[in-house]
Design goal:
Structural class: alpha+beta
Bound molecules: histidyl-adenosine monophosphate
Distance between the termini: 48 Å
Radius of gyration: 28 Å
Shape: elongated
CATH architecture of the largest domain: 2-Layer Sandwich
Length: about 425
């Protein structure tokens, strides 16, 4: 029997992991610069956390969740995203009493039963962050700038920022009536999901995957034209903050986002490269979510970036990540005594933080040399009788074959410097 990874999942191999690690380190370094700290949340939650949090008229909740009953009869769901779980953790751990804003970032796997495509998986990875307790648009602009700094530090450009406002419950109420008036005469032509959404959440009809391209959807009234005064002021100030930082954006009234918790600011970073899955990062404000998950009314905002999509985009833009040489040097032994010497030396070097390797397979001297050539290690040294009795070693640079004689007393300093 030959097993394969389940459909929609993939192995991330040692040969590519350094790119993921570089992105993760860069993201966490930047978050720390902005005052965010890491949170780790469970991979699964009580199903209600997502049903109430993400919203039960969304595709994510209706069609894409991995939900099962555990052996204790509880309904459990593998997280389809991070926000609802972070909000649950914020409430459960009494974090509202911490100095505001409470700012947290994460690096998680998420699970959605979706149709496999380039850049779309059933298990995928997200970097994200959430901030609680800040109501004004300054933080909206600040978290958008975090994504920009990340792309810049990773060497990517040509990713455009699209922003929109989808208002608050106050302007949404009036707008929903407008939308219903617009769709009502055509409701029989709409798909079954849209017919259900019509009463419960007409805004969802706008990004329907089935009806989205129909003129009736394209010509629907736009929420951005019907914002209340407070939401309009929030949006205008966000734009001026972005202008002030020199962050370019496109106003895109069609962004509604696929999750129900959003209010006011929504944004997406979109590329032309990742096939049909062009959205690399998406986020926005969710001022009602903490309350709807049982906490006290608290404004919130965040985003998540698809790591697979980010790396596909980096590849498409020709960004090259350097693979770090963790192991600097291989020591080849010419005798059993040399092996003893090397194993002690390697132990001491590793205590000093120097990556090194020795033969672990009982290879002949020739085979050790062959291994050193193939393994990609940047330096090697041969240990024979002369090196055992003498005061120095010859360190060979594999790239060009040049050799350097280094005294044993200076070896640690020398290896730290190369
Ligand atoms: P989302 O737009 O559902 O938002 O997902 C964010 C990003 O995750 C997407 O832009 C995409 O890059 C990636 N992504 C989503 N689904 C898949 C998939 N099946 N395969 C590969 N990548 C995928 C959220 O998840 C919100 N929690 C973001 C947020 C945080 N909003 C506020 N705070």
């Amino acid at each position: 029997m030959k097993y394969s990874a389940p459909k929609g999942t993939r192995d991330i191999l040692p040969s590519e992991i350094f790119m993921w690690q570089k992105a993760a380190r860069t993201f966490s370094d930047i978050c720390h610069l902005y005052g965010y700290e890491e949170i780790r949340i469970p991979t699964f939650e009580d199903t209600n956390v997502f049903q109430r949090g993400v919203g039960d008229t969304t595709d994510v909740v209706q069609k894409e969740m991995y939900t099962f009953e555990d052996k204790g009869g509880r309904s459990i769901t593998l997280r389809p995203e991070g926000t609802a779980g972070v909000v649950r953790a914020y409430i459960e751990n009494g974090m509202a009493s911490l100095p505001l804003p409470v700012r947290m970032f994460y690096d998680i796997t998420a699970f959605r039963y979706e149709k496999m495509q380039k850049g779309r998986y059933r298990e995928f990875h997200q970097f994200g962050l959430e901030a609680f307790g800040a109501e004004g648009p300054e933080i909206d602009a600040e978290i958008i700038s975090i994504v920009n700094v990340f792309f810049k530090k990773m060497g990517l450009d040509k990713i455009s920022l699209h922003i929109n406002s989808i208002g608050c419950p106050k302007c949404r109420k009036a707008y929903n009536e407008l939308l219903k008036d617009h769709f009502r005469p055509h409701i029989d032509e709409m798909c079954e999901d849209c017919r259900n959404r019509f009463e419960k959440n007409p805004l969802r009809m706008i990004d329907c995957k089935v009806d989205g391209e129909k003129d009736i959807v394209k010509n629907a009234p736009r929420l951005i034209d019907h914002l209340c005064d407070e939401c309009r002021a929030h949006y205008e100030l966000l734009k001026s903050r972005l202008d002030n930082m020199g962050i370019a954006y496109t106003e895109d009234p069609n962004i509604v986002r696929g999750l129900d918790y959003y209010t006011r600011t929504v944004f997406e970073f979109v590329s032309e490269n990742v096939g049909t899955q062009g959205t690399i990062c998406g986020g926005g404000r969710y001022d009602g979510l903490v309350e709807s998950l049982g906490g006290s009314a608290t404004p919130g905002i965040g985003f998540a970036m698809g790591e697979e999509r980010f790396l596909l985009e980096a590849q498409a833009q020709g960004v090259v990540f350097d693979k770090p040489d963790y192991v600097k040097i291989f020591f080849a032994a010419m005798s059993d005594e040399a092996k003893d010497y090397i194993s002690k030396l390697c132990y001491q070097l590793r205590l000093e933080g120097i990556g090194c390797e020795q033969d672990l397979l009982g290879r002949s001297f020739r085979a050790q040399m062959k291994y050193a050539g193939k393994s990609g290690v940047p330096y090697m040294a041969v240990i024979g009788d002369e090196e055992l009795s003498g005061d120095s070693l010859k360190i060979k640079k594999m790239e060009d074959g040049t050799e350097m004689t280094v005294s044993k007393a200076d070896l640690i300093g020398y290896l730290k410097g190369i």
